[in-house]
Structure formats: C-alpha cells, structure tokens
TrEMBL record:
One Pfam family from the record: PQQ_2
Protein kinase domain segment(s): 22-282
Biological source species: Streptomyces roseoviridis
Source organism superkingdom: Bacteria
Name of this protein: PQQ-binding-like beta-propeller repeat protein
Record's keyword terms, sorted: ATP-binding, Kinase, Nucleotide-binding, Transferase
InterPro entries listed in its UniProt record: Kinase-like_dom_sf, PQQ_b-propeller_rpt, PQQ_rpt_dom, Prot_kinase_dom, Protein_kinase_ATP_BS, Quino_amine_DH_bsu, Quinoprotein_ADH-like_sf, Ser/Thr_kinase_AS
Keyword Ion transport: no
Length: 730
C-alpha cells in the first residue's frame, strides 16, 4: 500500500514513485523548476502533481517562494483555475497537487493549429478577463500570465502556475535587481520598478497573450530577450493581424502606463453582449490525441482554489450591480530615452538587474477634451519637509502624515517630528525636530494643542500657534492612543486603559474594563461623546463591543456580537459600522449595529477585501483594499452599488471630500480622485518618488481635505496641495 502522507522526514515517500500519499503515474511535463506528474486520489480524482527538482529543494529562498505559490494558489477561486487538492511545501521534495484539467495550453494550441478564430478569440478575451478579475479580488497578482499558463477547456480558459504570484500580504519581497517573469509578456513596470507591480501588469500580459492567440506571435518579438525588453518599454506594439473589432481594446491593455489600461471589469463590459458563437474554446478535432494531453512544464499544477462557499449570509442577500463603464484619464506616457533604454538592456545582460525610471517635472497638463481649470483663489504648491522619506534601494519608504485645522496643516514624519505649514501657500511656519520620527498623523486637541506619536511610542504635544513643547508621555512602543474630546485615551499590553487630560497631560484614570482582558481602541463619536472599545474572542467567533465615557472611563453599554468584528465608523443616526473580518484580515461583510435597539444587520460582500479601509458617508460605505479595489455598498438596501479597480496596490485610507469625491494616496506618491456617484477614477497626480525608486512601504498616510482643497504627501518627503474641483487637470 502507498505510504502515508509524509511531512518530509521519509525520503522514500518523496522519491520518484510518490509525492506524499500520491503515486505518480505519468509525466505530464518538465521544466526548470520541477516535474508535473499525473496521479490519482483515493476517491479517484485525477490530479496534476508538481514536484520540485532536488537541487531547489535545498534552497531556503526557493522553498519560501514555493510556499508562497501554494498560499497564492489556495486563495484564488477554482472557477478559473485548477483547484489545489493537497500540498506539502516542507517535504524533502516539495510538491503541490491540483485537480487535473484536461485540455491543451494556449501555446500548444496555437503552435499546432494556428491562430484562434474570431469567436474563439472573443471568448478567450472574456474568459481571461473574468479570471483576472477573480484572481485580483482574491488579493493576488499573477505576474506571469502567458500562453503556456493558459489551459483551454470546454468550460473556458483556466489560468495556472502561480509560481511568482504576489499575495498582497506576503512577507516575501522581490529581491532588488532580480528580473522575474517572461519578457515577451511582461509589463514595462516589471522592468522599471518591479517592487511596484500591481494588477495592471496582468492586464498588459493579457494584451500580449491575445495578440499571440490572434496572430501566432507577440506584440514585441525578437530572438533576443534584451531587445524584447527594450521594445516593451519603448516601442509601440505590433497589432497586425488582430481583428479590428478587438484591436482598440488590446491596444489599451498594452498601454505603457498602468493607469491607462482597462480593468478586467472594463474589458468584460466592452465585450457585452457575450458571444455564444463558439460553444467550446477548442473544437473536438483540435484536441490532442490520447488520454493525457500535454501540459506546460512549470504550469500544469500551478493553479489554485479559493471558493468562498459558506461566506455568504443567506438571511441578507446581496445583489452585485455591474459597474458602469469607467473612463480613464490620460497620463503622460513614460518615454524611455535611447541611452536609458540601452542601460536597461545592459543591466539585463549583466545578470538580470533592471533600470528604474523616475517621472519628474511639473504636474501634467489638463486632459485633452477637458476645459482648462477655471481661475480660483487657490494655487497648488509643494513643500519638502526635512529629509526624503525613503524609497531608496532596499530601504523602507515613508511619507509625512498630516492633519488640518483651520488654515494650518500639521505634518509629522521623517526628518522633523512635527511641522506647521500654511495651508494656503505651503510655507513652513515652525518645525520641531526629534530623535525619532512621527508614526501617526498629528492630532488637534482642545486648547490649541497638537499631539503626535513618535516611533518610540511617546506622545509629544506642542502649542499650535508657535510650536512650544508641552507635555509628553513616557515611551511605550506597544501603546496606542486615541484623542477623545478633552482627553487622550491610551491602551497598552497590560489589559488596562488609561486617560490623560489633553491640555495638561495629567493622568485622569487607569483601570480595566468589565469583560475585557485586552481591549482595543475603536473610533470616537463626537456626537455622543463616547469611545468604542472592542475585543474579539480567542476563537474569533464573537466580539465584545463597549462604549466608554472617555473623561471617567465609565462603561455606558457593553454588547457581545457574533463574528470577528472591527468598528470602523459611526453612522449619522448613532449606529456603529463594523467590518466582519475573515482570517488574514480579509473583510467579508459589513455590520450596521444600532446599540439602543441591539439590532445588527449584516451586509455580505460579493468577495473578500484584503486589509480594507472603510469610509462611511450617509448610508453608503466605501471599502478600499490594499490591492486598490474600491467598493461602494448601500448599507440601507444591502447591496453593492459599484466597484472600481484603481490600479494601485498598497494604498492609504480613504479621505472623503466635497462634491461627492473620495481621495486616496498611492505608495508611489500619486493622489487619486474618485467620483462616488459613478465609481469612476477622475484624476491623479504624478508620482513623487524622489530618486525614482520605490522601497518597501509599510504604510501610506491618507490625504486630508478642506472643501475643494486636497493635501497629499509622498515618499520623497513632500507635502503638496491641489485643487479638487478639477482633478482631470492635475
């Protein structure tokens, strides 16, 4: 009988005959990283089992990458991939088993039978767009979409091989200087700034795949990968042979700038109504003979499951509304000068390093077809505070965090601990240095006091008018704080809360709360004067929510709610809005809780959102995931209004503004504006990276707004202001 599933201690189980408990029956393909075998499960399922080569099994970095591949594959939906059945990345020979999907790869099909017909090409476009939408919603960027990673089946295309995918919450960083991907199907940003590759890179790869499917060659063809790299970054794609009804859409997918590419949802909308001319992607006579069609090496077992069955609340159905078609506002195309382009090629030839380009200069002009910005009394400005915020090779990047009060902007961050700027001109009024840096935006306290938390956990206060230092707390790195009216409430790791007077820093009270062993601070509601405190149970099945009077520490009410909940905002009628989180900080639903009636209404989301930030305006909640997907939810009607893929990953919290606008900052220093009425991206500023390189960004501060004025910050250490009445002209 086969040996039991091994964790890696028994080499016999990981030999050429077995992977864990699965007997390897036939070789389906082999590649540089491993071999894909056919196997059968105990219940009779046919499996594709990927077993890595022995030499890579001894490499800790490769094991980490393979472990990431398994994790990424498990997260995405099985509707468009080959679901993961079992895996053991810690075995002597790491392996992963997915459901065997019969059907040739797109690469094999085109090689054997020539380009696809127009009907097949249309269905392939819609199927891959739908697959990418699902993969991105699961929090994964594929980064290596190519014809050999697309399986053609009667039920539509399946995307496989997540070997270099990047889950947004992965701890594994792309090593500086490493070129990862397949050059003919890589996006320009994968050569220029590989650490800032987002969902738009997969859309560029989709465009290249479609050209290959339509013509038998790619849009950038050469025998030399170095020349291909140059063409991808610098040249226009060759779309000769692409059907004219699809050529404009494919051209948009191949735009040099990520923001100019359509989202998968936009691609699907552009293809409506769907084509039913071809009932299957591959006619029967085109299928390869034999019971085991050839699968691509390194690709046959790389897909994953991620079905969200059971995440829906049957008592509160949600109907997802198809988002309207969204316009993309043009940005200046990044042109690679010949000497720089040759530098890219030389760097590639020298060992896989890549050149990164910086966009500098004045803000871009107004978009074509839009009137010039009307004259106003407000003129945009930019001020650099202290030293550059990071972004250098291998370093952590950070941007100043700001708060607005009247005509003054208070900012903390790298360099000075806190500075006051004139909000109209950007002039620095005063600045106070410190040994550390500010880790949160300053808080404006009663009595004209500004408070900022340093990276050592201390709370420093200053007189708002002239920056005279005031009271400060002792260092407490694990302590968090929340300004609440006339006091500041602090929570550490002791299980107790304490409060200090905002004007003097004098401690007012310090004690635990009934039922809480490790209370966490939620939002403060200025209307009721209550601070929300919460604590999930150890098994994450329930959450204790309490309302505390900040001045005394008295608990006004305490209710136990079902689910792992995080309070995010207070509604206009006293209701509390909470996010229901799944494991790995994925938001799967919103809960609207009315404490006076002890009534909770759960609004499930159609897909989980990674590390979502939430803003509430009236009865509408807006959720923004770290991958840049923005979703509007009507809490009263219990339905999704629209969703928008901003094309930016690792973004800030949302900042509502006048005129039905939402603003968000991206990790490269761009400020984005969204129209909430239609779910459209209506403008964005240029990147601000200083030396043009993006380091590892731990957090992105949110912009602040005042009327139509919007203030953003960037990793180059700058604070800038723009006129929000005309974001198309930024």
């Amino acid at each position: 009988m086969p040996p039991l599933r091994s964790t890696g201690a028994d080499r016999d189980a990981e030999g050429p005959d077995y992977a864990g408990e699965y007997r390897l029956q036939a070789c389906l393909g082999a590649g540089g990283m491993g071999v894909v075998h056919l196997a059968t499960s105990a219940s009779g399922l046919r499996l594709a089992v990927k077993v890595v080569h022995a030499q890579y099994a001894e490499d800790p970095e490769f094991r980490a990458r393979f472990r990431q591949e398994v994790a990424a594959a498990r997260r995405v939906s099985g509707a468009f991939t080959a679901p993961v059945v079992d895996a053991d990345p810690d075995a002597v020979r790491p392996w992963m088993a997915t459901l065997y999907v019969p059907g040739p790869t797109l690469a094999d099909q085109v090689k054997r039978s020539g380009p696809l017909s127009r009907a097949e090409l249309r269905r392939l476009t819609a199927g891959l767009a739908e697959a990418l939408r699902d993969i991105h919603r699961a929090g994964v960027v594929h980064r290596d979409l190519k014809p050999s990673n697309v399986l053609l089946t009667d039920s539509g295309p399946k995307v496989i091989d997540f070997g270099i995918s990047r889950p947004v919450d992965s701890d594994l960083r792309t090593e500086t200087g490493k070129l990862i991907g397949s050059p003919p199907f890589m996006a320009p940003e994968q050569f220029q700034r590989p650490r800032e590759v987002g969902p738009a890179a997969d859309v560029f790869a989709l465009g290249s795949v479609l050209v290959h499917a339509a013509t038998g060659h790619g849009p950038f063809d050469s025998d030399s990968p170095y020349i291909v790299a140059y063409q991808v970054v610098h040249d226009e794609p060759d779309l000769t042979g692409v059907p004219e009804e699809l050529a404009p859409l494919v051209a948009r997918c191949l735009a040099k700038e990520p923001a100019e590419r359509p989202t998968p949802a936009e691609i699907m909308a552009a293809l409506l109504p769907p084509s039913y001319e071809a009932t299957a992607f591959i006619p029967a006579q085109r299928r390869s003979p034999g019971p085991f069609p050839s699968l691509a090496a390194d690709g046959a077992a790389g897909a994953a499951a991620g079905s969200f069955a059971g995440a829906w609340d049957a008592d509160t159905p949600v109907r997802a509304v198809a988002p309207p078609r969204r316009r993309r506002w043009p940005r200046p195309r990044l042109r690679l000068r010949l000497p720089v382009a040759l530098g890219v090629l030389l760097a590639l030839a020298a060992g896989g390093t890549v050149a990164v380009l910086a966009t500098r200069g004045a803000e871009r002009p107004a978009a074509p077809g839009h009137p010039a910005k009307a004259a106003t009394s407000f003129t945009g400005w930019q001020t650099v505070l202290g030293t550059r915020g990071g972004g250098g090779e291998g370093g952590d990047a950070s941007a100043p965090a700001c708060a607005l009060s009247g005509g003054a902007l208070y900012c903390s961050g790298p360099g000075p601990l806190v500075s006051r700027l004139d909000a109209a001109t950007g002039r620095v009024v005063w600045s106070r240095p410190a040994a550390g840096a500010g880790r949160t935006a300053p808080a404006l306290l009663p009595g004209g006091t500004v408070a900022v938390t340093s990276d050592t956990g201390e709370v420093h206060t200053y007189a708002a008018g002239n920056g005279t230092p005031g009271w400060r707390t002792r260092p407490a790195a694990a302590e968090t704080n929340r300004p609440a009216g006339s006091v500041v409430v602090l929570s550490g790791g002791t299980g107790r809360l304490r409060a200090v007077d905002a004007a003097t820093g004098k401690q007012l009270w310090r004690h635990g709360l009934p039922g809480h062993s490790a209370p966490q601070l939620g939002p403060y509601d200025s209307a009721s004067g209550l601070l929300t405190v919460f604590e999930p149970t150890a098994d994450a099945t329930h959450t204790l929510i309490s309302a505390v009077r900040p001045a005394t520490g008295k608990v006004l009410w305490s209710h136990r709610l079902k689910g792992n909940l995080v309070p995010v905002a207070h509604g206009r009628d006293g209701a509390l809005v909470l996010s229901a989180t799944y494991r790995d900080m994925q938001t799967e639903a919103l809960v609207r809780y009315a404490p006076e009636r002890r009534e909770a209404r759960r609004v499930p989301l159609p897909y989980r959102v990674d590390s979502a930030s939430t803003a509430v305006a009236g009865s509408t909640a807006y959720l923004l995931g770290r991958l840049g997907t923005l979703t509007a939810v009507d809490l009263a009607a219990g339905r999704v209004l629209w969703d928008l893929e901003t094309g930016s990953r690792n973004v800030s919290a949302l900042a509502p503004g006048d005129g039905g606008r939402l603003y968000v900052s991206a990790s490269d220093g761009r400020l984005l504006a969204v129209d909430t009425a239609h779910g459209t991206l209506v403008g964005q500023t240029r990147p601000r990276l200083g030396d043009g390189r993006l380091g590892y960004v731990t957090s992105v501060p949110a912009p602040v707004t005042s009327g139509h004025r919007v203030y953003g910050t960037a990793p180059d250490g700058s604070v800038f202001a723009v006129d929000g009445s005309d974001p198309a002209g930024w």
